[in-house]
Amino acid sequence: NKDYIVDVNVKTSTVSASSNLKFAITDINTSNIFFRLVFNESSNSLVNSYAPQESAENYKLTLRIVKPSNQPIDIDATLLDQNSNFFIVDLPDNYKDVIGTYECELFIDTNINGRLERSTTNSFTYEVVKSIYNGLDGIIEGDDYPLVDTLATREYVDTSIANAVLG
Asked: 165: helix, coil or strand?
């Protein structure tokens, strides 16, 4: 796993992400992003005595993404532990299947006094980089994901096709 951590300030709806969130198009089960909720408690003790203590379990995070192909997609983050402020998004293959820069933002949802409150964060990006096999795409298959790599990741190969190819 990549151990990328993005800090999410719930009071100011801002995120602080490193500028080098990168995944290879050939990555499998290592494309996750951790989100850490940051609650800015007041430095005023009187305000803190009346304000309820914030809890991450009262929040829902939705990662909204625009792919390099301009296709919008979204995915919900999962709270790792009720006692932590950490959420995780494990990006499925179709969230990193086009080489390029993915634009992101988060919806931060919570219920206050029985009413949904939603804020939208500033944007951040992650990048999907090519594999050395992508240089073979013009020869073998398409622009983004080479046939050779697709065959290498299959659990089985049809023996009649393999025998026909190999002779």
From this structure: helix
Instruction: Show the tokens assigned to 119.
Output: 């804020």
pTM: 0.73
* Cα gap 91→1, rounded to integer Å: 11
C-alpha span between 106 and 14 (Å, rounded): 9
Task: Provide φ and ψ at 35, rounded to 5°.
Answer: -115, 125
Distance, CA of 5 to chain centre: 11
Measured CA to CA, the distance from residue 74 to residue 63 in angstroms comes to 5
CB 105 within 8 A of CB 32: no
pLDDT in tens, 49-77: 666 667 778 889 999 999 999 999 999 99
The answer for 92, left when phi > 0, alpha when psi is -120 to 50, beta otherwise, is: beta
Distance between CA 5 and CA 21 in Å, rounded?
9
What is the three-class DSSP state of 108? strand
For residue 162, is pLDDT > 70?
no
Q: CB-hemisphere CA count at 13 Å for 66? A: 5
- pLDDT band at residue 131 using 50, 70 and 90 as cut-offs: confident
CA within 13 Å, CB half, 141: 10
> Do residues 93 and 63 touch, judged by C-beta distance below 8 A?
no
